[in-house]
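As promised in the previous annual report, we have extended the structural survey to additional targets. Below is the entry for SGNH hydrolase-type esterase domain-containing protein.
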Amino acid sequence: MMLWLSLVLWASCLSAFVCAAPSYNSSVLSFSNGTASRGSAFVKKSFVWSALGDSWASGVSYDLLGRTDYDDNKDNCMRINHAYAVKLSEDDTWVPNGLKQEFHFQACSGTRFEQIDRGTNQDHIQLNEIPADTNMLLLQAGGNNANFAAIAYACLFAPEGKEWGPAFPDPRGACAVELAKAREYIYGTGVNQLFQDTRWTVNAVFNNEKVKHMDDLRLFIPGYFQSFYEGGGAGDWCDNASFALRYSDRPTLSLALRKEINGLIRGLNDGIKAGIVGSFHHHRTHFIDVDSQIGDHRFCQPGHSLYDQYFGDKVYLWNMSPEGVIIGAGASGGLVKGNGTYEVREPTPEEFEHWRKTGFFTNDPREVQTNMTTIARAQMAKADGVALGNDSEWLNEIGLHQNKFPGVALRPFHPKENGHFAMAQAIRQTIQANYDIAPFAGASGLEVPWTRSIQILFRETGRKFSWFMFVGPFGKSVDPCLWEAAGFQQIVANYPETRKGLSLMDPPYVGYGTRWEIEFPGQWDCRYEAGQNDPGALKCGQYLDYPFYHDARNTRMTCNSKSKNYGTFHRAWTLEFII
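The corresponding structure token record, generated without further manual editing, is:
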């Protein structure tokens, strides 16, 4: 359950968008908080939704025979026919109010955050293509902005044809450089960094001219899978293994590298959540944790083999692996047009070892070679602005492609079909929990958000000063004499203030450097941190940072009993929020 801050004044300072006034539409949909959207007596007959985003949302079609393609790659977006959105579109059990669903698929491989609402990818601005009566959007983005493709090449694949430098963690190597770029984006809060990119995109969705009148619109944002097992121990076999596409100086899958990459993926997910919270529309936007669905199906899992990292169903993510053994009929290995059919199958473990050593799975002269090193070199050449040579022309024969890059080159570290199925399960559960739908077996509902406040009081007792902090109901002033009866929790009691010359009637800022821990469900490392020249802030994790402000109630209270003087309190600093 996320911590949702309702600092309207604060948010208005940070956002370039103006909150639109509520308007009416013709749909009537109920939600898990017991409310219904406003609307006329006319009830919609269909539930309209769209899937937006990057290649995790679109999938990456790769099959030589076109069997994985969703729409004949009509706009170069590589959409796949078993993407999680497609799987949801084939199941009506989650659709609110028993309506018929109307599905639209705008997600496109290669999309960055800014290409959702203003920039173009493959000549598309995705928000411009959604229907005007959209009820729900799925949107997944951030992986391309966060540099993960470059990390995969520099740290894992490192193909021939480019100097990569020393392996991780040597800071001189390309791997360390690309990881540093990702960290800068993920953990930054400035313009064109993750927190602001997410906030901007969420606000852009709800302020889009097509749908801003749809007051029942909901936005769901899935996160990303962590790629690697990182538990270490006796079953960890990957330290000396490698996914590299070269035969010398091959970087290994060290535990430290795996932890570093996983940590960045966790940071990406946390940053997206924080950006949602920081938007104007956090109450209508829901992050979906898909990582919990992958279980023991990551790379380097104990009990798996190297073969399992490339083929089979044990790992839910693609590696830099060929489609399989491709046997062509006819002359020239079957590549000459009109020469008949192809046979495509997974290799045996023995054929896999043969491929690793020779580049071929078999000794059959009809085998179509899928040279992943050549594919990777071609992809690097385009990324570096180098003209493609003749050795890349044959790539067009290996399935669908985007800008001459076949799906097998674009799909590494993307979900396989079983990965998309796992993501669809998590998405379905979250949707059902947020709409008034009886969940399918095993789904768990989300609690309705409830409001809270944090109040800091300054106390004087016998010419000594101290601080108190209380957490309690939103909009209600804590009575420090009877705080328990009113539903408050005392977080800090009698924290000493040693500075001289203070006045109860003019509370100072809490001493700079003071830190008080606070626990909130679903958040980590939450604390109050005193500022140097301000009232301080509530912080959680590496992103949430919300300032306290002067308590306008500006009153003082005295607690006395027959035997003891408990002192006089004065309201000082406060913050109101929604959990």
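The longest helix spans residues 255-277. The CA atoms of residues 299 and 578 lie 38 Å apart. These points will be discussed at the next consortium meeting with the crystallography subgroup.
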